[in-house]
Specification:
This protein is an alpha/beta fold. The chain is built from 20 helices and 17 strands.
């Protein structure tokens, strides 16, 4: 037995070294951690159970017969994050560049199958040069096996991808199929075709960072949900994301302990909210100010903060309860809905609904962004994505209209008409087809043009329209708004509303699946 144990210990030590100390040192020199160091940071101390440590590839082509590494370039297994089970795979760039082939893919598929069978999140730490060319089509098949599992797990268990190095070609589609992508700044990139191919085909000169770096995907493409300056921060963000999500679609997000600030309902009043809305309807303000007063202190985790900043999405807590926030941002493009904002919000709404996270909408929207770029880019179908997402969602849904709620955007932003459970409005809310000035110019065009003083007549008719529609009371009289509230009471009302809705259950029509305007 002693001899057998010696052999096992030698093999375990070899596996722990991955591609060897020289390659580990090179990884560190790039400011990157090793695959095992990443797993150690992610999981609770002592909780990791490795699977497939002694797996090796089965190819003998192109010199692979002389390059066998235990584990075949990916560390896989399970453990806990803050006491909750998770499954993880961590690609090892020190082993054949972290390239994916048959055995490597089988190990990833194994933990994904276990995650799905046991109802726990799966976290992928990606750092790979792509498909292992020496294994040919087997590598491509391995990617497809993973993609298929990503789709099977979608909406069943949370899937989070960290991009901690290169991720190119077919490798990008697995992260794209997961719920969240977190990238390191300066050391990671994602693209379908690299700079050399781009130069050959389109004659564009572009670096890997410009083409698919973290800042590019955070601000231009929207592919990355979060970016971080280093890998430790990435791991922390993954842990934060997990804290807002349940283990699977059959569970509810965990409640955090919460105590009322100064005892009783009065402790939840937020008088500062009475002074948020500017006197002029044309003046911007930061909706984050409202969110900060409504949510539990320091609980807001914004998602895609640099993409489509005219809408804000993210996770927060209200009295310890996890919620998803969708808010128009008047400080950017007046909070208008455009193509990117609609896609960003729709994806987030569907994610929250998949994992039983209630939705809070803060609405101040002047409409959809006009222009040929928007129309030719498909604002109709893209705006409909957000409409579809809200209409489909069965989680508790509460809307607070702070100021403008104009036109079709009023309908889309979780109105009562598309299934919102509770709709509140501040006294400053304006719920109408359009602003008073634009409406007056259309309705009273002839009367204004024939007046001795057109400007004065326009002002008169604008005031007339505003008196009729530029307030929340006509909507409240129809029941489209449940209550017009003192802004200071907003948090108090939301605590009670979400508590009242905690057992909400909706039976969906029988069908295979819907057909959203993808």
């Amino acid at each position: 037995m002693e001899k057998s144990m010696d052999r096992l210990e030698r093999m375990q030590a070899e596996a722990m070294l991955g591609g060897g100390q020289k390659r580990i040192d090179a990884q560190h020199a790039k400011g990157k951690l090793t695959a095992r160091e990443r797993v150690g940071l992610l999981l609770d101390d002592g909780s990791f159970e490795e699977l497939g440590q002694l797996v090796t590839h089965r190819s003998n082509l192109f010199g692979l017969d002389k390059q066998h590494f235990l584990g075949d370039g990916v560390v896989t297994g399970y453990g806990t994050v803050n006491g909750r089970p998770v499954y993880v795979f961590s690609q090892d760039f020190t082993v054949l560049g972290g390239s994916l082939a048959e055995a490597h893919a089988e190990k990833i598929c194994r933990v994904m199958d276990l995650a799905l069978d046991n109802g726990a999140p799966v976290i992928g730490l990606n750092d790979s040069g792509g498909a292992r060319i020496q294994e040919g089509v087997v590598s491509l098949g391995g990617y497809a096996d993973i993609f298929h599992r990503n789709v099977q797990a979608s909406g069943v268990v949370p899937q989070i991808s960290a991009i901690l190095g290169p991720c190119a070609g077919g490798a990008v589609y697995s992260p794209a199929l997961t719920d969240f992508i977190v990238m390191t700044e300066g050391t990671s990139y994602m693209f379908v075709t690299g700079p050399n191919v781009v130069k050959t085909v389109t004659h564009e000169e572009v670096t890997a960072e410009q083409l698919g770096g973290a800042s590019t995907h955070a601000s231009k493409s929207g592919v990355a949900h979060l970016t971080c300056p280093n890998e430790v921060a990435v791991i922390d963000q993954i842990k934060a994301l997990l804290s807002y999500l349940p283990q699977n679609c059959e569970e509810q997000p965990a409640m955090e302990a919460y105590g009322v600030n100064s005892g009783g309902a009065g402790g939840e009043l937020r008088p500062a909210l009475r002074d948020v809305i500017p006197e002029s309807a044309m003046q911007p303000y930061d909706i984050r100010t409202v969110a900060a007063e409504i949510l539990d202190a320091d609980s807001f985790l914004e998602i895609q903060p640099d993409y489509a900043p005219n809408i804000i999405v993210g996770f927060g807590r209200i009295a310890g309860r996890s919620i998803g926030l969708v808010a128009n941002q008047p400080a950017y493009l007046a909070g208008v809905l455009d193509i990117n904002a609609s896609k960003k919000a729709a994806r987030f709404v569907r994610t929250c609904d998949a994992f039983n996270v209630p939705l809070l909408v803060l609405e101040d929207v002047p409409g959809f962004l006009p222009g040929t770029d928007q129309e030719w880019g498909g604002i109709i179908s893209n705006g409909a994505k957000l409409l579809y997402a809200f209409s489909e969602a069965t989680v508790p849904r509460v809307t607070v209209i702070t100021r403008k709620a104009y036109g079709g955007a009023y309908d889309v932003m979780n109105s009562k008409h598309i299934g919102a459970d509770m709709n509140f409005a501040w006294p400053s809310a304006e719920i109408a087809v359009m602003g008073a000035k634009g409406a007056a110019e259309i309705i009273f065009r002839k009367e204004i043009s024939e007046a001795d003083d057109p400007a004065g007549k326009l002002a008169e008719k604008e005031a007339e329209y505003a008196e009729l529609f530029a307030h929340p009371y006509r909507a409240a009289s129809r029941g489209y708004v449940d209550e017009v509230i003192d802004p200071a009471q907003t948090r108090q009302k939301l605590i009670r509303a979400f508590d009242m809705l905690r057992n909400k259950s909706v039976a969906r029509p029988k069908r295979k699946h819907g057909n959203p305007p993808l």
